[in-house]
Amino acid sequence: MGALLSFGQDPRWRRFLVSRIPHGSRVLDVATGTGLVARELRRTNRAHRVVAIDQSEPMMRAGSFDASTERVLARAERLPFADETFDALTVTYLLRYVDDPGATLRELSRVVRTGGVVASLEFAVPRGRALHAAWWLYTRLAMPAIGALASRDWYEVGRFLGPSIERFWRSYPLAAQASAWRAAGLGTVQWRRMSLGGAIVMWAVRES
Questions:
Q1: Which listed residue, of 69, 94, 108, 193, carries a Cα 20 to 30 Å from 55's Cα?
Q2: Are 94 and 33 in contact (CB under 8 A)?
Q3: What order do you get walking across the sheet with 86-92 strand by strand?
């Protein structure tokens, strides 16, 4: 359904996210859900050692993980790992759901070694009046309708996503997000808008 709601773009976003991770890293995949990024990490580079965490046990049970992937039930806001445990960290669709995105970024940064990479995939709001109008119509009308074809739960997901994404970007525009990354000790912050601005991948290096 994620691929369907994103016109097949979600897998491409995950591939680009994973491409930011250096070869043979010990990677913490945060908010792993059903393990789509964790699987992509192992599919792309068998030398990666992956630990996947999520706060939802049903989501993790429903997922399909590589046999070598360690799974941990935990919250992103309080990771059960020592400082600088991992070479890299990936996180998807998380910051809209936490009370304090800046504090959560600091916690994510804490467990990555100095010089390691943190990379994030999030939905975004396109720039420009025409693109924003098209995005608004799609998220408010088409996504709930597509979700309804699958189930009542997916209808609710489709109805929720557009307003949730827009609220987050209103509170945390791109400049504010980049500033929060830097405040968390993450330097050389870079990003790429994907699919006409409907998603964004951000990545940075842990400096201190």
A1: 193
A2: no
A3: 70-73, 49-54, 26-30, 86-92, 112-123, 199-206, 186-194
Digit-coded pLDDT (tens) for 22-63:
999 999 999 999 999 999 999 999 999 999 999 999 999 999
Taking only Cα atoms into account, the Rg of the chain, rounded to an integer number of angstroms, comes to 17
Token couple for 2: 């994620």
Residue with tokens 């408010």, as numbered in its chain: 140
Which whole-number Å values give the CA distances from 141 to 73, 170, 197, in the listed order?
35, 20, 19
Pure H helices in the chain? 2-5, 10-19, 36-44, 57-62, 101-110, 129-137, 143-150, 152-171, 174-183
81-123 pLDDT, tens digit per residue, is: 999 999 999 999 999 999 999 999 999 999 999 999 999 999 9
pLDDT digits 0-9 by tens, 73-83: 999 999 999 99
- Write down the pTM of the prediction: 0.93
Helices 101-110 + 174-183 axis angle, to 10: 40
Q: How many angstroms separate the CA atoms of 25 and 117, rounded? A: 10
Structure tokens at 185: 């000790």
Cα distance from N-terminal residue to C-terminal residue, the chain = 39
Residue 94: name the closest of 16, 18, 29, 13 by CA.
29
What domains are there in the chain, each with its CATH number? 8-125+173-206 (3.40.50.150)
**Helical packing angle, 36-44 and 10-19, nearest 10°:** 50
154's tokens: 């997916």
